[in-house]
Specification:
Number of helices: 10
Number of strands: 9
CATH architecture of the largest domain: 2-Layer Sandwich
Helix content: 40-55%
CATH topology of the largest domain: Beta-Lactamase
CATH class of the largest domain: Alpha Beta
Number of domains: 2
Largest sheet: 6 strands, antiparallel
Strand content: 15-25%
Shape: elongated
Order of helices and strands: HEHHEEHHEEEHHHEEEHH
Length: 245
């Protein structure tokens, strides 16, 4: 049953803004299934009214999706979507988990969850504002900014960290390539953080998910925690309208 659902979702996800209509073969190629199997799925979705077969034998999503989209709670925001995942990640890792966005020249925490599992932990409070210069969360948010918006921040970071703009841009490129950022003691001595981007329906990044922990504890689990943070951010992205990777 789950496999069938995954295949149906894969068909829906194969359509993009750039390719809003596809041939049967193109759909099969994108979901990596035989053409015969793909035909059976597509035919069922066509009959159910979720796909439309055009005159040129290509398929596109039907207006049923417009109706369903209108049923999405209009006030459902990133905090409401992310909150359960923040709580789950905090319980799983026993570390402090937070959600951030850009506010002017600062990075602002819009939600944070921590556990009492350890007396030694990173403390982040909702509403806390931090200059958008250092730290893994700041790097993620700046790395995904449009170039014109990022330009003044690149200059400020280069000046504050005594590096060239080229070095700062190279670091941002690395963040985008690997899909996360890690910092050790950049904002607070002895505190490390891992951050990953949250993408919306337009594949834009206006929020990031962060895990903060004492450096001595994070470094021994860094690889494992990076994977958990990236996966959690991807789950939020998916519910926020982002695409399946």
């Amino acid at each position: 049953m789950m496999r069938s659902v995954q295949r149906i979702l894969a068909v829906f996800e194969s359509f993009t803004a750039e390719r809003s209509s596809l041939t049967l073969q193109e759909i099969a190629d994108r979901i990596e299934l035989p053409k015969s199997t793909t035909f059976r799925i597509v035919q069922s979705l066509d009959q159910a009214g979720y796909l439309v077969r055009l005159e040129d034998q290509q398929y596109c999503l039907s207006f049923r999706f417009t109706r369903l989209a209108g049923l999405v709670k209009s006030t459902l925001g990133i905090r409401e979507i992310a909150r359960p995942i923040l709580i789950e990640l905090a319980e799983k890792t026993k570390e402090t988990i937070s959600l951030h966005t850009v506010s002017g020249q600062n990075r602002i925490c819009i939600d944070a969850v921590s556990t009492d599992a350890s007396p030694l932990r990173a403390v982040v409070q909702s509403g806390e504002q931090i200059p958008l210069l250092v730290g893994s969360g700041s790097k993620v948010l700046m790395a995904y900014m449009p170039k014109d918006e990022a330009a003044p921040f690149v200059t400020a970071v280069a000046k504050a960290t005594k590096r060239t703009k080229a070095d700062v841009l190279a670091e941002f490129e690395k963040v985008r390539e690997q899909g996360y950022s890690v910092s050790h003691g950049e904002r607070l001595l002895g505190i490390s953080a891992i951050s990953a981007p949250i993408k919306d329906v337009h594949e834009e990044v206006h929020y990031c998910l962060s895990l903060g922990a004492p450096t001595v504890r994070l470094q021994t689990r860094e690889k494992e925690l990076v994977k958990q943070v990236v996966n959690a951010a991807a789950n939020i992205s998916l519910q926020f309208g982002g695409r399946l990777e």
